[in-house]
Structure formats: C-alpha cells, structure tokens
Amino acid sequence: MAQTEKKGGLLRKSSASKKPLKEKVVLMYDEIFTTEDPSKCNPRFWEELFLMKVNLEYLEGKLEALDGEELMKIKDNINCLFQHCIQALGEEHPIRVVNALQVQC
C-alpha cells in the first residue's frame, strides 16, 4: 500500500492509474479561489469549512501566489471568507471558533 503524503494538501501522490487525492478542506479552499460563490452549490459550505482542520500551508501558498489582478477577481469570495470567519467567532462550537481564528491569522 502506498504511503500517504500530506504536503501541499495532497493525501497521496499521483500515479498512472490514480488521480492525486486532496484533503476536503483543500478542495474547499480551491472553491474559494474561483470566481464563483462557493456556497452557491453547497448552502452549508461555510459551516462545513470551519469544522475542518485548517491547512495553513496550503491556504497561505494560494494567497501568496495571487497577483493583484487575480486577487481582484476573487475579492468577493475573500471578503466572504473573512466575514464568515468573524461570524464563526461568535459561535458556541469551540472547533469553529479556533479554526476561524487560524484562518484569519
């Protein structure tokens, strides 16, 4: 059985027969970095996001890789991310609060 790899949000390396597996939280981050509203297809998107362990390495890498033009294209999603972080801080669920704080940092 192949050894799993967690670097860069991948759970396993790609091979000829299999696509690389990504963590669910990484897939959700990728949705935020598109021009579409991530909660359009999944109304519980933000609730689910803050229940998952934050992958800071991947999130920071995605943000640092953006140039000004790309950032402006996804500005609404980035603003929405931080708006939902702030809302999550007021929740009683401690995991959501901690994860929202980590994303904000």
UniProtKB/TrEMBL annotation:
This is ARMD3 protein. Signal peptide: none annotated. GO terms for cellular component: cytosol. The lineage of its organism: Eukaryota, Metazoa, Chordata, Craniata, Vertebrata. InterPro entries: ARMD3-like.
